[in-house]
Amino acid sequence: MPRLRARTRPISDPGDLLRFAEPRNPAVWLRRGDGIVGGGSVWRGEFSGERRIHDAREAWAEIVASGRVEDAVRVPGSGLVAFGAFTFAATSAAPSVLQIPEFVIGRVDGRAFLTEISVTDSIDSSGPVPTVPVRLPLIIPDGPVAETTLEPGEMTQQRHRAAVEAALSRIGQGEFTKIVISRDQHGDIGADADRRHIVRRLAEAYPETWTYAVDGLIGASPEMLVRVLGRSVTARVLAGTLPRGADEAADAAAKRALADSAKNRAEHKFAIDSAIESLRRLDTHEDPDTGLTASPEPFLLGLPNVWHLASDIRGTLPSGSSVLDLVEALHPTAAVGGTPRQKAMPAIDELEPFDRRRYAGPAGWLSASGDGEWVVALRGAEVDADGRVTAFAGGGIVAGSEPADEFAETGPKFRPIAEALAPKAPE
Fold first, then answer.
1. What keywords appear on the UniProt entry (predicted)?
2. Would you call 178 a catalytic residue per the annotation?
């Protein structure tokens, strides 16, 4: 493991943070225009299998223990930071990664900062840090536009219907109570395309979501898997979805229909109960419920493409735990996997004709101070080095689900990434 030195200093507002990201491999975390952007790389770790999150946590702990951090700003995202993305399934052939950039430029609560990270050695790691002027990274001009039209993939409408019907049969036999079935779409933006165009379009169209880009995984997720700031823990659970209406009246009707839907409320209850149970298992206090609260009733979260049933969970970080402990405990949520987890996960492998890779897995960042924010990687796509794009969207299957409705539900979930990639009409 490298010995690292990280130094964070305040800077004047740099404006558009995406200008500093790498065009072909951006490292980004944004919401409402604020967040962090990384560039370069001083270390990258790849992990796989059942212990992928555990092994990443151990590697990060070793790096933090040997590193030196000088942070004059002390806001979420300052200091020594790593970006990360983990596969949905332990059996995935895709890598789970943590990567530490050479620099992080960020803006949080009106405070802008620059972190410079370098490899040092044991001889001078405890010596004084030279005082040098703050120099911003170079602004990188926009490259070729990343555009493509997404086309259906391996999970055709017919195969999706068959998978949903098989899932319903197994639910009827009592194997599980809920399972998420997803489908895929594909496109090609070309190897030299500037991936920042995708990130920018998502961030502008969906400012209330968390826009992420890590190791070719790009999206705008509405679902916060877990956030740790200090000792404060927050998670947002989404389960139960209907498309937005075409006009005001239709939209109001869709909102009411979701609020009154027994099927969607049952799906949401599975997800919230699963998340609370996972968090409570980590709590070693004498009263495991101390500080852990959830919305008594789900609220309706409106995004440009869909309405979601949503619940927020709040609590206190258990003693001796880290943000990656919580990520490991919560993933996969019932909102993207199923209930019970140990039955639904193998069934997903059987019913879906593809590797989900990092779709619906955890994506986010963590810092040496213990802070971190991780979303469920939704409303996005994997963009390979050669420009191949693979997008996924899914829906929860419970007793009473209708195959045609479930297929239709995935359409609006593709919309954010499809529109971010869509070729612009000539002026």
1. Isomerase
2. yes
Q: What pLDDT does 423 receive?
A: 92
* Side-chain-facing half-sphere of 353: CA atoms under 13 Å: 15
Q: Over the stretch 371-397, which tens digit does the pLDDT of each residue have?
A: 999 999 999 999 999 999 999 999 999
Domain holding 74, by residue range, is: 3-126+146-421
Per mean pLDDT, which range of 144-148, 245-249, 369-373 is the poorest?
245-249
CB-CB contact of 396 with 244 (8 Å): no
Helices (H), 119-181: 157-172
The answer to the question of residue 257 being in a domain is: yes
DSSP state of 194: B
Residues paired with 35 in a beta bridge? 30, 107
Among 50, 116, 208, 223, the one annotated catalytic: 223
Q: What is the distance between the alpha carbons of residues 329 and 350, in angstroms, rounded to a whole number? A: 24
What is the residue type of 314?
R
- Please state the φ and ψ torsions of residue 278, each to the nearest 5 degrees: -65, -45
Tell me which residue has tokens 């997720």: 221
The predicted-structure confidence for 96-116, as pLDDT tens digits, reads as follows 999 999 999 999 999 999 999
CA-CA distance, 243 to 251, in Å (whole number)? 8
**Which residues, 6 or more positions from 19, have their beta carbon under 8 angstroms from its beta carbon?**
139, 140
The answer to whether position 233 is within a domain reads yes
In a domain, 374, yes or no: yes
End-to-end CA distance of the chain: 52
Find the catalytic residue in 50, 147, 154, 178.
178
DSSP 63: H
pLDDT, residue 336, reads 93
Give me the sign of the Cα torsion angle 275, 276, 277, 282. positive
- Element (DSSP H or E) covering residue 46: strand 43-47
pLDDT beyond 70 at 122: no
102-106, 241-245, 281-285, 423-427: lowest mean pLDDT where? Answer: 281-285
Instruction: Please give the structure tokens belonging to residue 96.
Output: 């789970």
223 is catalytic: yes
| Cα 126 from Cα 133, distance rounded (Å) | 21
Number of domains within the chain? 1
Is 311:156 a contact under the CB 8 Å cutoff?
Answer: no
Q: How far apart are CA 343 and CA 270, in angstroms?
A: 14
Is 272 inside a domain boundary?
yes
Task: For residue 184, give every residue at least 6 positions away whose Cβ sits within 8 Å of its Cβ, in sequence order, or none.
Answer: 152, 153, 154, 155, 354, 390, 391, 392
pLDDT score, position 129: 58
Q: Where are the beta strands (DSSP E) in 349-424?
A: 362-367, 372-376, 380-383, 388-398
